[in-house]
Design brief:
This protein is α/β, with parallel strands linked by helices. The chain is built from nine helices and 13 strands. The protein has a domain at 2-153 and 181-211 and 265-272: Rossmann fold (3-Layer(aba) Sandwich). Strand 5 (107-113), helix 5 and strand 6 form a beta-alpha-beta unit. The longest helix has 18 residues, at 85-102.
Length: 298
């Protein structure tokens, strides 16, 4: 199959592209640029790279032409200049859907967030919800995966915590006890790849989350153990939190997924359920390279 991936050189896009290439699919990777956070994941041999803004309908139509499926993975965790949540998540999704319909792409899949909701407190999650609605209302064969916080090589969760615990001896935590279900990128990619031909995922919105419920404090400790660091965790009011909230908003603003949504979500088939446990070993595999891991604190 010929498959287009928006955000194809980003974190999730890079892992998905590598998986699809191993399965013999032809790839068209659409991106504004190349994510340099982990060079080994970003470009897949033999794939076509199209430099285009996700809101450039003409470029998207050209890139999607002849494709059997589109994976819409373009997204941001913090606004930067013209790359706002509204522009990327809402206008970008509308442009991608319209381009796919215009050239007759039969399948469309996107990754959202399990925190997405019409009344979400953070604009990242509110705009993700509106992006979901655009896809659901488009009248196309689609799959929407509402993902938990995703970790793996090149991620923006574990690596943000890793940077913090290697540069500080004290790690501040919000006063509220926050619970996450971290999702290994390999598990997410497995479900995405299945959506190409699994009829159980057609016209469905599915929540995908890891098998372990983890408090943010425990997440920090597991990452620290993988790095052989020993930070002191101290709870502080949210407004005193010194780290970039844009990098990991799910740990600051996404304290709990919405309990009720206007649109029902489907149950993920049991054979596709994530199985990778959130362990020290999994975190070690998520870090950039063994040579880059700091020595133990003594």
């Amino acid at each position: 199959m010929r498959v287009a991936v928006t955000g194809g050189t980003g974190f999730i896009g890079g892992h998905l592209a590598a998986c699809l290439a191993r399965r013999g699919h032809d790839l068209v990777l659409i991106a504004r640029g190349v994510d340099r956070s982990d060079h080994g994941l970003r470009l897949v041999a033999g794939s076509a790279l199209v430099h285009a803004s996700v809101i450039d309908g003409s470029r998207l139509r050209d890139a999607f032409a002849g494709c059997d499926a589109v994976f819409h993975l373009a997204g941001i965790t913090a606004p930067r200049g013209a790359q706002t949540f509204e522009a990327v998540h809402v206008a970008g999704t509308a442009a991608a859907v319209e381009a796919a319909r215009a050239v007759g792409v039969p399948r469309f899949a996107m990754v959202s967030s399990r925190f997405a909701a019409p009344d979400a407190p953070h604009p990242l999650f509110e705009t993700k919800w509106r992006a979901e609605e655009i896809v659901r209302d488009a009248g196309i064969e689609h799959t929407i995966l509402r993902s938990a916080a995703v970790y793996g090589r090149g991620d923006h969760v574990v690596n943000a915590v890793a940077r913090a615990v290697t540069t500080r001896t004290v790690y501040p935590l919000d006063l509220r006890r926050r619970l996450l279900r971290p999702l290994a990128v390999a598990d997410l990619v497995t479900v995405l790849a299945a959506s190409l031909d699994d009829s159980r995922l057609v016209r469905s919105t599915v929540t995908v989350e890891g098998p372990d419920e983890v408090a943010v404090a425990d997440l920090v400790r597991v990452v620290a153990m993988a790095l052989r660091r020993k930070p002191v965790c101290v709870r502080v009011p949210r407004w005193l939190h010194p780290f970039d909230r844009g990098a990991i908003p799910v740990m600051v603003d996404g304290s709990a997924p919405p309990t009720a949504l206007p649109t029902a979500t489907a149950t993920l088939p049991a054979d596709l359920a994530p199985r990778i446990r959130f362990t020290v070993g999994a975190i070690v595999d998520s870090l950039p390279s063994p040579a880059a891991r700091p020595a133990a604190v003594v």
